[in-house]
Each structure stands twice: as C-alpha cells, then as structure tokens.
Amino acid sequence: MWIDTHCHLDAAEFCGDQARYADAAAQQDVAWIVIPAVERGNFARVAAIAAAQPNCTYALGIHPIFVPDAKEADLLALRQAIILALKDPLFVAIGEIGLDFFVPGLGEGALREKQEYFYMEQLKLAREFDLPVLLHVRRSQDIVLKHLRRIKVTGGIAHAFNGSFQQAQAFIGLNFKLGFGGAMTFMRALQIRRLAAQLPLDALVLETDAPDMSPAWLHPQKNVPAQIPQIAAVLADLRGIPLQHLAEVTTTNARTALPRLALLN
Predict the structure, then answer these.
(1) Are 107 and 64 in contact (CB under 8 A)?
(2) Which residues pair with 180 in a beta bridge?
(3) What mean pLDDT, rounded, does the chain reach?
(4) Nearest to 50 by CA among 65, 38, 40, 36
(5) Of 128, 178, 168, which Cα lies nearest the Cα of 151?
(6) Pfam families this protein is in (predicted)?
(7) How wide is the angle at C-alpha 98 spanned by C-alphas 139 and 12, nearest 5°?
(8) What's the CA gap between 2 and 25, in Å, rounded?
(9) Is 96 within any annotated ligand binding site?
(10) What pLDDT is recorded for position 106?
(11) What CATH number was assigned to the domain covering residues 2-260?
(12) Any bridge partners for residue 33, and if so which?
C-alpha cells in the first residue's frame, strides 16, 4: 500500500470530481491521501472531502502564498477549527504552513515579516496541540529551520524537499520526514535525485502535490494521486531496492510522521 502525504484534492483542477480521482488512487493501492488546507476559506472544504472519500484525510493551516491576504482573525479561526477537528480521526496535522521566498516579493520587507509571523504562530498552535506540521519550504530552508529550533513541535513532513544534505540532516534531527514526488522523476533534477538516492530511507515519504509537481511523463498535464506508485518506482530504481520494500518503508514513515494517521485502519 501507498500513502500520498500531500495532495491538494480540493483544487479547482479536479472540477468537483474528487470521488473519481480518490477512487482511481485507491485502485492503485493508495490507501491514504492527505489533503492540506491553504487558507481559512477552505478549512471546511478539505474536511468535507476527507469525510466523503474513504481514503482521504486532511490538515488545517494557512499556506505562505496565501499569507498576504490573511488576517489576524484567520489565526483565531484556525485555532477554533483545530479544536473542533481534534474530535475527527481524519484530521492528521497542521498544514500547509511554512515560508516561500521564491515567489517575487514574498521574501522581502513587510511580506516576509508577515510570512514569518504566520509561520511562527502556526508552529505555536502545533506545539500547543501536540500536532505534526506539513511544511512548505521554498528557498527558505535555513529560516524555516531557525524557527523550528526555537518553537519545537512534535515533527512532521518537509514537503517537496529540495535543500542540501546538511539541511536535510537538520530536518531529520528535528523529527521530520522529507517529501519526494514528481520533481524527482526528471533526469535533469540532479540534486533532488541524489538526495532521494542517498538520504536515509527511513526519512523519506512520498507525495504528489497534485495537481502540481507532475512527474516527467505527465508534464505539463495536471498531477493526480494515482501517480504515486509510478513515482515510487523511480525512487525504488534510484535506490536499487524492491518496490514492495519501498512501499512498506514509506508507509511506515508516513505513519510515524503523522501519528493520527497511524491510528486509522
């Protein structure tokens, strides 16, 4: 079995046809799909999709790209949503949160300060409720790590990891798993492929980030969670290990990173 640890199944690209895509993933032995929220406006939507699909779970958080339009009241709403969601076994993490210094303007001045503020406040919520986090880390690894060292959380997943070996070891040392997906399937992605091949196997989890981060054979078409086994086959080949072994280890890793997910059948 497989777990897609990061999939935006609520996105408009899926045209309200989430059931079909979730079922197609299930047919490929994708036992669980984790759907992270990105803003206050879709907290209820990700929860509703998870409730409607037998292989979906969800996380709640405010994505850094949505921070420019976010308000202080959104953090209060997130806290209240978390309190209610703790009663729901399908709620597994705080996310998607983090920092994005790649998008022009977001990594500068007041917007950077606001990003860091929202990131820190959400880390505090994760610490308060003893929940793992799903991290967005784009050209911001060292600053994300700086705040993680100061505001210690139980762990989680650094989604779409694309840092250095040293940064990878720092995340691992803070009890984080590292997410690998479609980017790893491109032959020119030399650094990501080296990381995927050489990092400790017990630190790796699989993801699609669907509808984004399409693998090489789909690009530029949208990504879908049913692609997980084929993406996994690339990772198994890079590491020279049987695909079934990779399935077992990455499933265990995902459950370790997301303890509430581990409680689900």
Answers:
(1) no
(2) 206
(3) 97
(4) 36
(5) 128
(6) TatD_DNase
(7) 100
(8) 9
(9) yes
(10) 87
(11) 3.20.20.140
(12) 4, 56
- Confirm or deny that 72 is annotated as ligand binding: no
Determine the Cα–Cα distance for residues 223 and 226; give it in Å rounded to an integer. Answer: 9
Residue 159 annotated as binding site: yes
Looking up tokens 């709403």 gives 77
The reply to whether 245 sits in an annotated binding site is: no
Q: What is the 3-state secondary structure (H, E, C) of the chain?
A: CEEECCCCCCCHHHCCCHHHHHHHHHHCCEEEEEEECCCHHHHHHHHHHHHHCCCEEEEECCCHHHHHHCCHHHHHHHHHHHHHHCCCCCEEEEEEEEEECCCCCCCCHHHHHHHHHHHHHHHHHHHHCCCCEEEEEECCHHHHHHHHHHCCCCCEEEECCCCCHHHHHHHHHCCEEEEECHHHHCCCCHHHHHHHHHCCHHHEEECCCCCCCCCCCCCCCCCCHHHHHHHHHHHHHHHCCCHHHHHHHHHHHHHHHCHHHHCCC
Q: Where are the domains of the chain?
A: 2-260
Please state, in angstroms and rounded to a whole number, the distance separating the CA atoms of residues 95 and 91.
Answer: 11
What is the distance between the alpha carbons of residues 5 and 32, in angstroms, rounded to a whole number?
8
Report CA-CA distances (Å) from 27 to 32, 48, 203, 225. 12, 22, 26, 11
pTM: 0.98
The long-range contacts involving 215-223, CB below 8 angstroms and separated by at least 24 positions, are: 215/181, 215/182, 215/185, 216/182, 216/185, 216/186, 216/187, 217/185, 218/182, 219/182, 219/186, 222/13, 223/181, 223/182
> What digits encode the pLDDT tens for the residues 23-67?
999 999 999 999 999 999 999 999 999 999 999 999 999 999 999
Instruction: Identify any residues that bridge with 4 across adjacent strands, giving them in sequence order.
Output: 33
